[in-house]
Amino acid sequence: MKLLVVEDERRLAQILAEGLLEAGYLVEVAFDGVEGQALALTGEFDVIILDLMLPRRDGLEICRELRRRQVDSAILMLTARDAVEDKVRGLDCGADDYLTKPFAFPEFLARVRSLLRRGVRARSQVLTVADLEVDTVRREVRRAGQPIRLTAKEYAVLEYLTHNAGRVLTRDQILAHVWPSDYDGYSNTVDVFIRYLRRKIDDGREPKLIQTVIGSGYTLRAPD
């Protein structure tokens, strides 16, 4: 599942993004209303975490515009305002849920899971490549009907590959979508997780789906 965080408090945005990444979601971040709206209008996100008070364009304006353009991403609105009328305004603009700052991260994560479970997004789906199935709602993986247990990070890498099946992804692209922006771990992190996935997805099975493109990166595809 792919999430968008639109939050101008950079420290809070970083905390939310890192927590969501650790939970296995793909995350992008915007720090003002104009950038956030441009990203949100792509329609690529399952949930949009949208701050109410943003520079350049506020959350209510963005929410109205998204719904006017029939973007059906679930919207979780964040705000420091706790007055009932503010919450009503946000929900009337098309938000699906409302969370008042400050909040505990476990509650925030539970709200995100709840929105995903409700099926607010009609496009939630099972992605398939050959006999590999990735259920993006339940976050379950099967190959030839057999369940495969993955860690949160393994799942996030696999979902990103599956969303881009047939396309070559560089190590930097995978790193940027699955790990925090300030990640300073080992340079071969992506290679390590690809090895983990190959053991679980490809070992003992045909065809091999996770392929290396020398000098470029990795791709997930069934051989022609």
Concise account of the structure shown:
Helix content is 38%, strand content 21%. It has eight helices and eleven strands.
What is the element layout, followed by pairings?
Layout (H helix, E strand, L loop, with lengths): L1 E5 L3 H13 L3 E5 L2 H8 L6 E5 L7 H10 L5 E6 L4 H9 L4 E4 L4 H13 L8 E4 L2 E4 L4 E4 L2 E3 L3 H12 L7 H8 L10 H13 L8 E4 L3 E4 L4
Parallel strand pairs: 1-2, 1-3, 3-4, 4-5
Antiparallel strand pairs: 6-7, 7-8, 8-9, 10-11
Helix pairs in contact: 2-3, 6-8
The strand line-up of the biggest sheet is: 2-1-3-4-5
Number of domains: 2
Number of helices: 8
Unreliable runs, pLDDT <50, ≥5 residues?
none
Described by the principal axes of the CA atoms, the overall outline is elongated
Radius of gyration: 18 Å
Which CATH class of the largest domain?
Answer: Alpha Beta
Q: CATH topology of the largest domain, what is it called? A: Rossmann fold
For the terminal residues, how far apart are their CA atoms? 28 Å
| Main sheet record | 5 strands, parallel
User: In the CATH hierarchy, what is the superfamily of the largest domain?
Assistant: Response regulator
CATH architect. name of the largest domain: 3-Layer(aba) Sandwich
Can you write the helix and strand succession as a string? Answer: EHEHEHEHEHEEEEHHHEE
The proportion of strand residues reads 15-25%
Give the structural class.
alpha/beta
Number of beta strands: 11
Q: Name the helicity range.
A: 25-40%
Question: What number is the mean pLDDT?
Answer: 87
